[in-house]
Amino acid sequence: MQDAVDNIEAKPRFRPVPWTALESPGDVELWIEEHNLALKEHIGPNETGYGVCFTLAEGGTIHMQTSADGAIILDVDAEAEWVSPLIVAIAQAEPPQGSMWVLPDDKLIQLVMGLSSLIASSILVVGHNFGRGQRRRY
Predict the structure, then answer these.
(1) pLDDT digit of tens for each residue in the chain (138 aa)?
(2) Which regions of 4-128 does DSSP assign to beta strands (E)?
């Protein structure tokens, strides 16, 4: 009986979802709405560091959060730095000194469209350090 309890407790809270490429801005808007509903449903009021993590098919991950102050925060791990030229083109800005990108919210649809064909899976995340003290706005 204890094994059954341990298995229930060991079950991950969120699971990766295979990505289906989004082909139009309308597809992206629908994904954003669904993602926001999932966050409202699964994230507690006192939880922080929530967002989505994209696993890229060619390697690396990008954690993404949208903030209340109208910014898109991206944490691009070292293995995913190869995608930086795409982010530069979308943001029309120089890459940051570290791994944390801060983009204006009006770039969200372009960003997701641009990344869409590169994503293998996505997963909701909680407790990720999005570097609040280190942000530089573009």
Answers:
(1) 555 445 555 566 788 999 999 999 999 999 999 998 998 898 888 888 899 999 999 999 999 998 888 889 999 999 999 999 999 999 888 888 888 999 998 999 999 999 999 999 999 999 898 865 444 433
(2) 17-18, 51-56, 61-66, 71-76, 100-104, 119-125
Using CA atoms, how far apart are residues 8 and 2, in angstroms rounded to an integer? 10
pTM, to two decimals: 0.84
109 φ, ψ (degrees, to nearest 5):
-65, -45
CA distance 14 to 9: 13
Look at the alpha carbons of 12, 102, 118, 78 in this order and tell me if their dihedral is positive or negative: negative
